[in-house]
Amino acid sequence: MSEIKQQIELLSGTFFEEVVAIRRHFHQNPELSCEEFQTAEFICKKLDEYGIPYQDGVAETGVVGLIEGKNASSGCIALRADMDALPIREENDVVYKSKNAGKMHACGHDVHMACLLGAAKILNSLKDQFEGTVKLIFQPSEENYPGGAIRMINEGALKNPSPGFVIAQHVINTLDAGDVGMRSGAYMASTDEIFITVRGKGGHAATPSQVIDPILIASHIIVALQQIVSRNADPVMPTVLSFGRIVGDGRTNIIPDEVKIDGTVRTYSETWRKEVHRRIERIAVSMASGMGGTCDVRISHGYPFLYNDPALTDKLYMLASEYLGAGHVKELEQRMTAEDFAYFAKETPSCMFRLGIANEEKGISSNLHTATFDVDELSLKTGMGLLAWFAVEILGELKAQSEKK
Fold it and tell me: Matching CATH topology for 3-187+304-404 and 192-300?
C-alpha cells in the first residue's frame, strides 16, 4: 500500500465528523437553482479556513478553488460538485431536516459539496507530496436548464489552468454505502423538453358537431407520437418519449379552445435526437390539421448526453478497486436521466462515477428526488477519500505523460 494512500485513508477518518457536519449544514439550508448565495458563502468560508485560494461569483454563485502541489504547472485535474437543491418538502424526521420550507437536498448535492470540501482539505494537507494542480469546481444550477455547467465553462472555469481531466461523483440509492459504480462511454441521456399547444374550437360538450375538439386531437397526437420510439427508433438506441402534463381547461360539459401538452425526449445520439425533434413536429402538426385544428410545437434543447471517457473511466475503476477493494466497485447500467456535467465532458475528457449511499438496515433506500431521500453518512468518508485519491493518482499520470513528450 502506497504511503499517500494510507495518509488519505487516515485523513478521511480524521476529517469525517467535520464533513458530516458540513453535509448537515447544507442539508438544513437548501437553496434552489440560481439562488445558492448562502451556500456559496459557506463554501468560501471553508476554503478560507483551509487556506485554499478561490474565485467566487462564477456563473453568479459558483466557486472555483485551486490547490497547487509541487511543480504546479506539471498538470491539472478538476473535481466538480453541484450545489442546488430541489423544490420538495422534506418528510424525513431527522435532526438535520431542511429548515427551508418546500426546499430539499433530495438529489444528494449536499453530499457532493461536503465530499469535495473534505477532499480539498485532504489534498491541501498533502500538497507537498504530489505534483500538479487540483481545481475545485462548485457548480450552481444543475437541476434547472440551461444549467450552471455551460455558464461556468463560458466564464472560464476550465481555463487558467486548463484541466486534463474532470471528475465528478453523484450519489445513487441502488448501491450500498461503501460501494461505487462506474460506466465507460455513453452513460446518461440527452434531455429536451416538449411543449405542444393544440388549438380547436370550444363549445358545449353536448353539441360536439359544432366544435373542433382539441382534447380529442391532443389524445390522438400523444398516441401517434409513441410510434417514434416503437417503430422509428433503432432498437439498440435507447430512446424515451414521455408526456407528464396535459392541460385542457374545460369542464364536464365544456370543451375548451386549446390544450397544452408537456413532455420530454431523451436519447444518446445527436443525429437521432435531431430526427426525433423533426418527427415530433411533423406528426403533431399534421395530426391536428387532419382533424380540423392547428398545433404549435416548441422543443427546448436541453443537456447533451453524458459520455464518460473510456481511458479515464477504466483508470478510475482500477484506482477505486485498489482503494476500496474490487468487490466494492460495480459496473453501472445506462440511465435515461440527464446531467449538465455532460457539458464538461464535451470540453475535456471526463468521468462521473456513482457513490453508493443506501443502507437497508437503517431504512435508507429512498430514490433520488423524493421527499424521503436520505443517505448513510458513512458514504462521505468513501466519497472524499476517493476524490482525493483519484486526484493524486491522475496528476501522477499527467506528469508521466508530460515527461514522455
Answer: no
pTM: 0.94
- Choose the catalytic residue: 35, 90, 142, 176: 142
CA distance 155 to 152: 5
Residues 283, 288: Cα–Cα separation, whole Å: 9
Summarize pLDDT for 234-290 with one digit per residue, the tens: 999 999 999 999 999 999 999 999 999 999 999 999 999 999 999 999 999 999 999
Does 3-187+304-404 carry CATH code 3.40.630.10?
yes
Q: Which of 31, 36, 82, 84 is catalytic?
A: 84
Of 311, 330, 310, nearest to 320 by C-alpha is: 330
| All structural domains of the chain with their residue ranges | 3-187+304-404, 192-300
Annotated catalytic, 397? no
Asked about 36 being catalytic, the answer comes back as no
Q: Coil, helix or strand for 54?
A: strand
Q: What cell was used for 380? A: 462521505
- Hey, what CATH class is 192-300 in? alpha beta
